């Protein structure tokens, strides 16, 4: 189980999705990355002695990896100390209120994992995003035209989600244009491209954290909808091959001056 987006976010005191589901004894190998929520680098692999011995003796990427430096280990340890002491709990309650208040009821006793997921509440920022953006007429029109979409937005209020990640899709040739639009509007945005995702499936991943406010989410929605409106006008003009959105024009002009 890859806990890259679960470490420090999901489960009791950020122990991850497997711990949230109470399946520690059912999963043979767990990978906890120390980037993302832990704000460091590297990773930890959890497994029994057979798994550990196999990795140490046969995994070339592990055998020939330089040991982490002391400052790196100290930073990782400090992060885990914050999780263990409950210092991150307040932020966790803001992001995942039902997780904190219901003390992560384990998976055992439910017939299906989906039953357990359905009982979870949406992260506050993600809930605000989906509620706000799906209420905008321009977003709905852009979605109908195939210009933009959030695959997880359909029936969002009846779904059970855990993560704080929201995929934002646009036409493949528009992906960098959307990135430029977001960046020039003050939003830290980067494209997720091949080989991270399969060819033809590039997208932007929106990542929310506990300190995000509703006002910030509303600003993000407005910025996305401004892009949607501009692209709707370009497509309706019939000049898709000739016209380029304003943010892309600015970036291309800067590139030409280099």
Instruction: Give helix and strand order, one letter per element, not per position.
Output: HEEHHHHHHHHEEHEEHH
Please report the total strand number as a whole number: 6
> Residue ranges: pLDDT <50 for 5 or more in a row?
98-122
Beta fraction of the residues? Answer: 5-15%
Biggest β-sheet: strands ordered side by side in the sheet: 3-4-6-5
Span of the ends, CA to CA: 44 Å
Largest sheet: 4 strands, antiparallel
Q: pLDDT average, as an integer?
A: 83
Helical element count? 12
Rg value: 21 Å
Helical content class: 40-55%
Helix/strand-derived category reads alpha+beta
- Shape field: globular
Summary, kept brief:
Helix content is 46%, strand content 9%.
């Amino acid at each position: 189980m890859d806990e890259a987006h679960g470490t420090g976010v999901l489960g009791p005191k950020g122990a991850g999705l497997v711990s949230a589901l109470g399946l520690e004894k059912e999963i043979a190998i767990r990978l906890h990355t120390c980037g993302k929520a832990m704000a460091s680098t590297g990773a930890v692999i959890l497994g029994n002695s057979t798994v550990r011995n196999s990795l140490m003796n046969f995994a070339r990427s592990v055998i020939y990896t330089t040991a982490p430096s002391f400052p790196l280990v100290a930073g990782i340890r400090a992060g885990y100390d914050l999780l263990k002491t409950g210092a991150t709990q307040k932020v966790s309650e803001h992001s995942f209120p039902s997780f904190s208040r219901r003390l992560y009821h384990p998976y055992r006793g439910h017939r299906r994992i989906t039953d357990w997921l359905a009982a979870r509440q949406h992260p506050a920022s993600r809930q605000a995003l989906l509620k706000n953006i799906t209420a905008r007429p321009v977003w709905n029109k852009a979605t109908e035209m195939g210009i933009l979409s959030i695959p997880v937005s359909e029936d969002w209020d009846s779904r059970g989600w855990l993560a704080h990640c929201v995929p934002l899709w646009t036409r493949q040739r528009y992906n960098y244009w959307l990135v430029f639009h977001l960046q020039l509007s003050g939003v830290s945005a980067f494209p997720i491209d091949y080989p991270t995702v399969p060819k033809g499936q590039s997208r932007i991943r929106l990542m929310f954290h506990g300190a995000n406010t509703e006002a910030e989410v509303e600003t993000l929605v407005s910025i996305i909808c401004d892009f949607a409106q501009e692209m709707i006008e370009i497509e309706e003009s019939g000049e898709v091959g000739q016209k380029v959105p304003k943010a892309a024009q600015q970036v291309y002009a800067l590139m030409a001056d280099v």
